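re: that chain from earlier
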Amino acid sequence: MGTSTNRRRRATALALALGLLASLLLALGTAAPAQAASGKVVGQVIGSQGGKLRVEMLWFDKGWNYLGRRKVEGDIYSLSLQPGTYHLQFVDQRPSYDVTKYAPSDVTVTVKGGGIVQRDVRMRRGAAITGTVKAGGRPAAGARVVAANTNEQSYEVKANGKGQFAVGGLPAGSYSVFTFDRKDTWVGRSRYVQGLKRGQAKNVGLALTKRGGSLLVQLRRGDGTKMTGSFYVTAVSKATGQFWTARARRGEVAFPNLYPGGYTMVAPGVGNWFARTAGIQGASVKAGRADLAASFRWTKRGAWITGYVVDEMDEETPMARAQVMVFDKAGHKLDETLTSSGGWFTLDGQIATQGGLKIVVNPEPDRGGYMQGAAWCQFKGTTSGPWSVRTGEETPVDAIVLPHATGKDVPSQCVV
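^ sequence. v structure.
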């Protein structure tokens, strides 16, 4: 009995060693897929006021999705990019209270493989808003002042000890100016500053005349269960448009010092539930009081896919800890998981109605393809699909068969 056990152990060790060696040889002998040659964007950053520049460059794809950032050394920038169309944004790094600060400058560039394109950038003085904040009739030292425009850009400063503030470097446009009392006592309506031009400064007075109220919101999934996790949500006043952001924990979120009235919540996607913007139910904030009966519910759940993975040689045998991934038709991975001890898996997330999904199943990671099926064998990956899903619905898939690896470097027999 002991001799038979030792033989099986030696056979197992030998098979694992051979499998790992084969995997290593395969990795060494496989060339990485060729990528298109990158191109380069170069240019000079020119300041209208002269002097040394303190500029940071950010770059985005064609759809304004953020890709990266770096400081511009001196007045020359150089950036290597894959072929495509990009937006570059140059931002003055001087503090926001400097009214001579440059406004951000944007350029759009199309990069071709192996080519160099030059785009010079001229930085120009932005607009500015200055003024004094008073809370309850007194200077509001340390008050937070936010200037927000219609392009969803916001710029923020703190008032000094006398309640004075300045927000410089603003792009031309119209702004709502919101004020937040450092002591969380007073609130007031926003001020609207219309039609600021580049280089223009406008002085406004900000008065916080009402005592703020507080709001506690219960957060629920569409099925009524508590929305767990830690994430940020934003409450927006229906009366003024002013917004407050707070961190949600343990299924609830508290907002202190709100302007009286009703509120809308801007909530991100969480887990399987899609982002939602909607009114906070039961929210009726009153000056100097706390509203503890409000609630908010996510209503749109993503699609989910269920199935199980079995051994090719014995379809009654489930494959535990197999890696399962789902990709959309553009090749973007939507979710990943490992099968349970019974071979079952669930793929989910914020997945909207769509077709052309592919499910990829691989052997357990970090074992060189070796897994326990009907016996210890070396397996290889497989693909299932295409599949279609609908938002908020389960899509069960057929049993996915994980095939055995074959080839001259793979043992001809499994280790029983």
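The mean pLDDT is 87.
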